Amino acid sequence: MLKASWRVELELTSGRPDPLGNAAREALAARGFRLDSPIQSGRAYLLPGSMTLAEVHEAAEKLLADPVTEQFAIYAPEESHPYGDATLVVRRLAGVADPEAHSTRLSLAFLGYRFPEEEAIETYRTFRVDGPVDAADFLQAGAKALANTTIEEASLASSAVRSHPRPSDIPCQRREVPLLQADDKHLAHISSTMSLALSVEEMKVIQAFYLNEQREPTDVELETLAQTWSEHCKHKTLTGPVHFQRVNSQGVVLEEKHYQNLLKETVFEATQQLSPPWCWSVFKDNAGVIAMTDDIGLAIKVETHNHPSALDPYGGAGTGIGGVIRDILGTGLGARPFAATDVFCVGPKNMPREDLPPGTLHPDRVLSGVIGGVRDYGNRMGIPTVCGTVIRDEGYVANPLVFAGCIGEIPKKYVEKEAFPGDFIVALGGRTGRDGIHGATFSSEALHEDSETVDSTAVQIGDPITEKKVLDVQLIARDEGLFSALTDCGAGGFSSAVGEMGEDLGAVVELSNAPLKYPGLSYWEIWISEAQERMVCAVPPTKLDRLQELCALHDVELTVLGTFEDTGRLVLKWHDEVVGDLPMSFLHGAVPQPVRQATFVQPDLSATAWPSAPNYKSLLQDVLAHPSVVSKEWIVRQYDHEVQGGTVVKPYQGSTGHGPGDGSVIKPRLDLPQGAALGCGIAPRISMIDPYAGAACAIDEAIRNAVAAGGNPHRTAILDNFCWGDCRKPDRLGSLVLAADACYDAAIAYGAPFISGKDSLNNEYRVGDEEVAIPPTLLCTAMAIVEDTAQTVTTPLKNPGNLLVLVGETFGDGGGSVASDFLSLPDSIPPRPNFTTAPACFSAMHEAITLGLVRACHDLCEGGLAVAAAEMTLGSCLGARVDTSKVSADPELCSTAALFSETPTRFLVEVSPSHLDSFQAVFRGQPCFVVGEVLQEAKLFLMDKEKNLATLTYEELATANGVMA
Amino acid sequence: MKPRVLQLFAAGMNCDRELRFAWESAGATVQDVHIHALIKSPELLQNADVFSIPGGFTYGDDLGAGRILALEILTHLGAALESFHESGGTIFGPCNGFQVLVKMGLLPGIPGVKASLTWNQTHRFECRWTRLILEKPLGHVLPVGSLLPAPSAHAEGQFVLEHPEDLKVLEEAGVIALRYANAQGQATTAYPDCPNGSLDGIAGLVSPSGRIVGLMPHPERNLSADHLPDRGAGDWGDGTEGIAFFRGLLAPYLAQTPAPSA
């Protein structure tokens, strides 16, 4: 019998400001639990009961407590807590990863204290009310406000804090699932009780297979099929046949189309037709790869991680970024990550708590959680998060979206990989636990009000340092040629990783070899666990010793799980007994593809009725404060967006650091001039009115961002992330079809191939009988090559006296624009890019930049010309004058539309007077208007010829836009 | 022979690439060594002029930034590092490297003065360009009063003393190397020019020997004009200051380079 644990509790020394304690007090107050006394926050450790008091004291002093800022108290195993009823303890649930506890164990060894794993070490947090408090009320309010009950539990310190009991090793035996005799109803029942998320049609295909095999399936075989056939892994909707109808509001069919494979005939088809030689790997690996130089490529991938982030925003977003980083590591023989992107779609700010659907976290808590998750994971990995945005809309309240992207550098010789018969199947990195069991199938189903409580195993906890060590080892091993293929463990865990790598080969896996976080897992859980920070590689037998040596040096766990064999079968063993045996051909080739119906009801839209003389000043202030426009500098500054030293064009720019950039430019190699310009585009507000226009605008925006910063539009690759509602419903799929069509048209027009993508098609939330879909959301990410990062451009104004030139034609179509919301205009025709003229505009813009004719450049996006001009002053502390009468050759365009219309494919450019002729020569035959000038005085003047429409000082602009102090 | 930098690597370190590039750009050769390899072969230090500890999140910042690596180095390499320093070697650590040097007690290294680096006053990680003014004790690296622009990127960079009145002791001992400065080049404790609320705006320290140097910001991320936030408009220098700083740190070894034997 082990002794109970010591508790070491640390608090700040008296008088030190305690922001965590203050925040806890505020969080309690927001829940209606108001305290007169302050709250003191603390962090705490459970240490093995076998230590002596003197040893615990030494550990607290030399290791745990900061010598200047913290004081500690030590409580013996059964000692009562002096402030027990006033101290809330928040700790992880049993089985939830605790990386800091692992670090504590490791560093206790430096002091000479080594413990077997059975002797628990844990960390927890404390919140002590420094005054009188009702214990029961405090516990009840604190559990809600200060703990995330999906992964944590709250208690009072007066009840003993004991280490979680270690699960015992339950012997598990091969188990068959009786399927052969089941009718449809029973098949559905099996699918739902095992959380397989397989349809009856799919279950029947499986049943037919086993009838032919004349045996029942084992549990692990069904789990493997469920993972491999999941929407998350197979993208059945996007790659399946679709029958599409466009009807008008009277129900008259306007158009009918049939797709045999929606994705192949739209997104892939464009890439096939374009097939530029600089595309090295498209849609076949974990990421797409394009050439940066003749022998160095750039790999890029953007993932969604929506449902886990809805349950645990911090953990979900962290593991989202962790997962997409592994995608890059798992591309070819491994790319080296050097940049990351993030885009969040969440509910509105300050939403009244009573308006939240049951079981939903508040949008503000979701946002701060996901930012924290990306920050803590990305910063620890040393990968600069340089590009992203935040969309806030009521449609995302119950189902927030988290997009995480990563870009890596890969020598051309490592782009291809192939596992060979006889190669060992080797797992690197984290241990396997119950984390994320059924993550792949869970994300294929709608969220519901009980999701929070029933699906806690679907949430994964990240451990970035374990992943960083894998990264370190993997890149060295790649350069030494120690493996012949590798991939990451993502959705579906080992089942997907081994299944994909061995698809053309065959594999034998001994599941009892997998190292576990704790005992008690059954073999099928090991096989599909989505525990983080694991890579699987194919290692030739002659290389294993060296790889083991390298892993030992870097403290990375290496396990041989089995071998790849040329049998065409996937064989799973548990302590030598065969528990699964499936032909790869059935696993990967047999998933049925039902025809899905898609319908789009064409709305009747009229032209935007812009008012002729609104209060321009207050309108601009409102628009600058809109969630899509408001400064995100406070987020970006939490990310180490300069790590690796290659961030040339930064997300926030200028002498003040407050000027928002368009694209970011990163150099993967400090010794080379080339770089990558990254842009992202997203327009759900427009997609709600017209999904085709919304998708086209998103793609134009992504490429425009990259071009504005100096990216080459003729070397631009794009990525798609479709996040839609349940596409088994015809109206959801109808808007998706239009967006996919737009993807094809745009890619062909711009000559920008799609090289990778990821969809998430079940973003619905069920309350009672009602199912609500998110707004149709396409994120487009663009990556453009920059030949020389010295030829890049930022948005802040540079020199008084320079001219402001508007490039691109402005139209009055303002449906879905930010200003139209503030002006309470009804839905009207939204903007969309002109695919005939837009590519030439991007080409000319790039030419002007490479000729050195551009001092500053900002693309026009939400809020149009007015916002672009305002943002260009924010980075510089200079001023600008803009004349709306000069914006267009069309005399009918009113000043309101000129300032606030969001027509895509436009740039506001600062050009020195001496360069104006050359600049205009580059744009000969294209719309290009001198609309104003740069001023010394830090004010923005909006004019209509001589008439002043509005004047805003720098302070007024900064305040409206919410820039940091 | 070029100055020889031995650069440490450990779990969670992630600013090693730019720091290596800075050393090389300033004229040094760099050899990487994993902490576990160095513990096995501490004699590697004997062939180095500079021991470089890059930034990052060693061991995830668990138990406090730099705490675990500091304890690991003290436990296994304390004596080797001491003799390296005594025989003329330089020890340099930016960001997490600085946190390690402070938690080891090597900086400020004044007996009886307890110092630490703790959470920024804003209580969050912050990445922004900052300006540093070079103080007298670092006059052998760059002219006193020089402005060194450099990105700061940290969560635990607030320099604190157990007894704030010990600041006088640090002044007298000549260990205050760098302070945060505003756009006018004056030392400041005001946010955001001083991003973390450090006592007296202290951004970096140097040992009385002049050869143990640490600072929170990253001069290794200011190595060319196209990286400057204002693209050389004037407020943030011309992109040469970072390399000059590293050349200054290498100066003793550039000078000592023995003449080729006859």
Write the CATH architecture name of chain B: 3-Layer(aba) Sandwich
Estimate percent helicity of chain A: 25-40%
Rounded to an integer in angstroms, the radius of gyration calculated over CA atoms of chain A is 29 Å
Largest sheet of chain B: 9 strands, mixed
Going across the biggest sheet of chain B, name each strand in turn.
2-1-3-4-11-10-9-6-7
Structural class of chain B: alpha/beta
Instruction: Please name the fourth-level CATH homologous superfamily of chain B.
Output: Class I glutamine amidotransferase (GATase) domain
Q: Termini of chain B, distance in Å?
A: 15 Å
| Number of E strands of chain A | 40
Radius of gyration of chain B over alpha carbons?
Answer: 17 Å
Gross geometry of chain A = globular
Largest sheet properties of chain A: 7 strands, mixed
Instruction: Kindly state the percentage of residues in helix of chain B.
Output: 25-40%
* Residues in β-strands, percent of chain A: 15-25%
If you average the pLDDT of chain A, what whole number results?
A: 93
Oligomer: heterodimer
Query: Largest contact between protein chains?
Result: A-B, 61 and 61 residues
Would you identify the regions of chain A where 5 or more consecutive residues have pLDDT less than 50? 451-456
Could you characterize what this model shows?
The complex is a heterodimer of chains A (965) and B (262). Helix content of chain A is 32%, strand content 25%. By secondary structure, chain A is α+β, with helices and mostly antiparallel strands. In chain A, the strands form eight sheets. A seven-stranded mixed sheet of chain A has the order 17-19-15-20-18-21-22. A seven-stranded mixed sheet of chain A has the order 35-37-34-38-36-39-40, with helices on both faces. In chain A, strand 9 and strand 10 form a beta hairpin. The two termini of chain A are 57 Å apart. The model of chain A is unreliable at 451-456 (pLDDT under 50). Chain B has a nine-stranded mixed sheet, with helices on both faces. In chain B, strands 5-8 form a two-stranded antiparallel ribbon. In chain B, helix 3 crosses helix 4. Chain B is globular. Chain B is an alpha/beta fold. In chain B, strand 10 (202-206) and strand 11 (212-215) form a beta hairpin. Chain B contains six helices and eleven strands. Chain B has helices at 16-25, 35-40, 67-86, 96-104, 167-173, 241-256, and strands at 4-9, 29-34, 50-52, 90-94, 115-118, 126-134, 147-154, 158-161, 176-181, 202-206, 212-215. Chains A and B meet through helix 2, helix 3, helix 13 and helix 16 of A and helix 1, helix 3, strand 5 and strand 6 of B.
